[in-house]
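User: Can you fold this complex?
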Amino acid sequence: MKRGLVIDLDTCVGCHACAVACKEWNGDSALSGPLADYEPYGAAPSGVWFNRVRHYETGVYPENKTVNVPMSCMHCEEADCVTVCPTGASYKREDGIVLVNQEQCMGCNLCTWACPYGARELDTASGTVKKCTLCADRIDDTLLPPQDRQPACVLACPAHARHFGDFDDPQSQVSQLVAERGGVTMLPELGYQPVNRYLPPRNAPKVSVMTTPDSASLMHKVSGWINKMIER
Amino acid sequence: MRPAISIVFFTVSSGAGLGLLVLMTLLSSLSAVHWSAQQQRMGGACAIVLVVAGLCASTLHLASPHRAWRAFIRVRTSWLSREAVLAVLVLPLAVLWTWPGLVSQSLHAALGAVLAVLALLLIYSTAMIYASLKPIRQWHTPLTPLVYLSAALASGGLLTVWLTQLEGASAQTGLVFVTLLALASTALSKLAYWMRAARMDGATIQDALGLKSAAQIKLLDAGHTHRTFLTDEFIFRIARAHVQTLTVMFWLAGLLLPAWLLVWFPQAALTAACSCLLGLFAERWLFFAQARHTVQLYHGATQV
Ligand code: SF4
Ligand code: SF4
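Assistant: Here's the predicted assembly.
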């Protein structure tokens, strides 16, 4: 099994609902304990997040567009964060999920350096490193109705931009989406073989924009210039 | 990367201690130098203090130091674990070697040789902790262990020269030569390291976001209003003037002054060693401060 997420960059609206749902579910989860907030009501609030959403602009005007990019652990197949860990606190499960045993981590931070994606964060309150668990305590909980056995972020997404499933199964929704839409991985050159895939934004039809004609007549330019001078 | 003073101190201090240990034990095991009991105690104690001080500093940066004992578990894959295991092997053996009369004369030579090898491996594994990290292009090169080994032997060599003079003897030509060689190797490997780092062939923001065909990508908003763990740890900016000062400090205090003193005033070996350590602190601080992690790409850097 190779469990992970597909994130659709075409439909993500950048609302941060996934990040908030993640913080809410995992803050209460026994897997990583509360996720610390530093100075939540102070001048510079900060804290531990498993999922962060960033916003980018691609292309050049008028061909530009906003792309919202949520990022969390990619549950890499070649996870160096696991191999560098000296204590054995970091491990990869049979189903591909990469976890940190909170009872064993000594907070040396090396795994956070080994992760290219910034998916691990040191919680200074607990002195341990924490990361996305893919809601391991939800997805296997048989007490939940089957449609709820999914990561909190996937359930919360109002744009249905997030999908959870098994990438080893070619029939799964995630595999099909990747095949259909040409799903890509981030920084594949580094060889971590991240499992999570991103569906690239579709190319929108070209927008027509009003341009000032280059061929504005000399007369036009001169009168414009005179008008400006007079205003001053 | 944010330079953690504890780690900068650890790598320089334990490097010098281990370099001293390597040369001291090798010289005696090869019968090139015969240490008096007093010198052996002094040199061994110096090396042990430098290594232990470094190790203590390094545990300072653990967020849960009470679990440090767990670090011996993953020797099969983790360089940090290997470092921890080698450190607890080297220290007791160094005590055995240092205290005269604890082991027989014949065993002493063998012990010295084993100790030298283990100490070299320990320096190597410290360097490999950094060199094995793929997200930091500047570190991910065999030049990193080369710099670490050369710097350890250079600073340790200067301390060994000082040790040989403790009882009035003049420095051995062979030892002076080896130390000068280590200084030269530090200079050359660091030069190569910096030249390699200056090449612009790191990952780009396009690679980072998987949007290879986008002509231009700009960060609009990192999604948080204040600093985060990621910005604290991976995004570190240094003023160019600062870099220049520290670079000059590395070349002058770290290499040129010690080499000059060693050749013309070998009796000032301790001054030379201190100056070298100062220069190496500057070098190690820059090693961290100039390293660029791929996480910077997600925060708006266009290339690392
Ligand atoms: S994304 Fe980072 S933390 Fe997650 S498995 Fe890959 S290397 Fe490890
Ligand atoms: S911080 Fe914890 S999980 Fe990460 S490498 Fe160190 S001991 Fe392992």
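The pocket of iron/sulfur cluster (ligand 1) is lined by residues A 73-76, 79-81, 98, 115, 117, 119-120, 131, 192, 194 (CB under 6 Å). Chain B has one domain: 5-299.
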